[in-house]
Amino acid sequence: MDKALKKILADFTKNEGNIISLLQNIQDAFGYIPEDAVYCFSKELDIPASRFFGIATFYAQFHLSPRGKNIVTTCCGTACHVKGSERLLNGLKTELNLPEGEHTTSDREITIEKVNCVGACSIAPVVIINKKVHGKISADKLMKEIRLLRKQ
After folding, report:
1. Which residues form the domain of 10?
2. Cβ–Cβ < 8 Å for 78, 42
3. Which helix (DSSP H) or strand (DSSP E) does residue 113 occupy?
């Protein structure tokens, strides 16, 4: 981790980056933003850690905990909600044996996300699996896709 952080810091100072670009580089290196990295850069750059955390928690692109290899995003906007997205999400949590409050499987294979809207209301309910949009998806089709992911 130290080697990666030193390289990120060198790039940051050389290119006169900003906190957002620094956080993006940290996330690119580790898949998420580890607390240790934030405190390291806070000390090195004399910037309060709260500033890093404030930015990281404001933007949805940043993640403060490890994520799975596969990302499953369920739209829960109005059209998707009406078409049963919450049932899909609950079924998904059950299928993956996710404890309450957890979003990533213990083997870090799958992370589930709930979003307010993906802008594809005409094909509700919508689930995005690794950036591939699945519209008008049923619980059976979703579980089939999840089982395929787990086999890979």
Report:
1. 2-58
2. no
3. strand 110-115
User: Are 79 and 135 within 8 A, CB to CB?
Assistant: no
Structure tokens at 72: 């499953």
Q: What is the pLDDT along the chain (152 residues), one digit of tens a residue?
A: 788 888 898 888 888 879 999 999 999 999 899 999 999 999 999 999 999 999 999 998 899 999 999 999 999 999 999 999 999 999 999 999 999 989 999 999 999 999 999 999 999 999 999 999 999 999 999 999 999 998 88
| Identity of the residue numbered 61 | Q
Distances (CA, A) of 151 to 110, 126, 127: 12, 23, 19
Is 140 found in the same domain as 83? yes
Question: What is the Cα–Cα distance from 30 to 80, expressed in whole angstroms?
Answer: 33
Q: Strands 110-115 and 70-75: what pairing?
A: parallel
Total-model pTM: 0.77
User: Is residue 7 within 8 Å of 1, Cβ to Cβ?
Assistant: no
Residue 63: inside a domain, yes or no?
no
The rounded radius of gyration (Å) of the Cα atoms in the chain is 18
For the chain, report the end-to-end CA distance as a whole number of angstroms. 28
Beta bridge pairs of residue 113: 73
Q: Are 93 and 137 within one domain?
A: yes
